[in-house]
Amino acid sequence: MRNMASLWFVSVLLNSFFWGSFGRPFYPLPSQLGYKDHAPLQLFRPFNIAHRGSNGEFPEETAPAYMRAIKEGADFIETDILATKDGVLMCHHDVVLDYTTDIANHKEFAGRRTTYEVQGQNMTGWFIVDFTLEELKTLRAKQRYSFRDQQYNGKFQIITFEEFISIALAANRVVGIYPEIKNPIFVNRHVKWSNGKKFEDKFVETLVKYGYKGAYKSKDWLKKPVFIQSFAPTSLVYISNVTDSPKIFLIDDVTVRTDDTNQTYEDITSDHYLDYIKEYVIGIGPWKDTVVPPVNNYLTTATDLVARAHARNLQVHPYTYRNENQFLHFNFHQDPYDEYDYWINAIGVDGLFTDFTGSLHQYQEWATPAYGKNSASGILHKIASLISSSKQG
Ligand SMILES: *[C@@H]1O[C@H](CO)[C@@H](O)[C@H](O)[C@H]1NC(C)=O
Ligand SMILES: *[C@@H]1O[C@H](CO)[C@@H](O)[C@H](O)[C@H]1NC(C)=O
Ligand SMILES: *[C@@H]1O[C@H](CO)[C@@H](O)[C@H](O)[C@H]1NC(C)=O
User: Fold this and answer.
1) Residue 192 falls inside a structural domain
2) Domain containing 213 — which CATH number?
3) How confident is the model at residue 19, as a pLDDT?
4) Which pTM does this prediction carry?
């Protein structure tokens, strides 16, 4: 009996760690990751933006994905913000829960599958806006891509915007956040807040609550760096009235129109439009294939988008860099370092959204080490340069 009881206790304990229901996850908090000082955000090389956390390794937008990204050297952790039925802001990319959670296994929710119009198209699934926070916390995340590690499926919860912020703030160095106002038209249609508040208001309120404020590179910003991103220009213009935090205007594929203003790619990347939007945003976040269009999986000549953005003092943060062969254009002979070298040195971007923060960080530590030439990677780089210059000589 005693053995049974203690076995039962150990199993509950293990499960609790697994599911995080003790409020303390079993993985290390960023403050325990061993950074020696509260180092500031680096500003001397392009930003390493951990797209949905280190989602190349862990299920996207979960606490472990963000912890891992911080450990691997992310400058910013990136997330998509949506809202629950009861108005809680959540980190989740899709408006449906089908592709990155185990909702299909939850019989109690079978009747909630439905069809809504999203960006002009009918979509069927379990929509996040139909579930309360309490219900969402019973779900477990899973890896989106079949070719990535499946061992963490079923282990981690979806997290709230506030939990996401806590992870960044718990790091023992300055780690910025890069949240997206996701599908604002859809969210405002389905979720209602008191006092006529909109999704955008709740989004900014959350940032302000945690001390995120101030213009790019201001004292406040350097303490708690944030970039606010959206594909919806009206949301960015709207919030520019209430926060001076820097904003990034996301730009989709050439065939996709803006959700809110129904503008074409040609329109929003015109000189005229860049002159307008530069009053509200500090940069653009284009899909990388629109900057350098590929043909037959080879990159062709770069467009002048980066030059025209830089001429207006707009930063350029393209998305998304992924290590796997199926995402790498043939020019890079299956080497993600070659891709980073091209985008950083030939194209001259100011930040990169990557699924593999560790790879980008190691590339940057090799090419432009953070702690100068005496760091381990700095010395290796020096040796490599000596070897290559003696070869040339
Ligand atoms: C979505 O489905 C509804 C109901 O069948 C239909 O009335 C509407 O036209 C559809 N919308 C689109 C964009 O296909
Ligand atoms: C910004 O605030 C001003 C003053 O309250 C208001 O007149 C204007 O419509 C607002 N702009 C946007 C885009 O909401
Ligand atoms: C967007 O504009 C195109 C071209 O004028 C039009 O065909 C389409 O119906 C518009 N979409 C919406 C949602 O208004």
Assistant:
1) yes
2) 3.20.20.190
3) 38
4) 0.88
